[in-house]
Amino acid sequence: MKGGENFKVIPEFWNDMNNSSTGELLEGLAIDFGMLGICMHFSPEQDSFTYFIGIEKGAHGLPQGLEVEEIPSSTWAVFDVTGAMPDAIQDMTKKIHAEWFPATGYQHAGTPEMEVYLPQEISPNSAGYRTQIWIPVVKK
């Protein structure tokens, strides 16, 4: 994805996934972290990255057609987000990059970052929906 189109394309991707048999399969296999949105393969020169939807791999086998992507160990800045999706997570993402990074001594580590959609009995469209953004960071 390039230049901000992620704020349109990613919610469409989630909608497609949530209405598919793959989405149901992943939800059934999800453990502690629930569903994950993973941003990786960053290309600053092209202002682009790749986005995956997945789960934490547990002891279960990997269903056919799915693949494993290993997330390296990192120092994480974790941001709690509460509110209806996708607006709440998009607003927090913008604040992290526009306000938090410039105000701290940290920069993005360039490794995968995660949106953690915690298991809960509430609609993602609810004002009380909880999620987290995990950003890998290093000192400047």
From TrEMBL:
Residues 1-138 form the AraC effector-binding domain. Gene3D superfamilies: Regulatory factor, effector binding domain. Pfam families: Cass2. Transmembrane segments: none annotated. SMART domains: AraC_E_bind (SM00871). This is GyrI-like domain-containing protein. It comes from Aquibacillus koreensis.
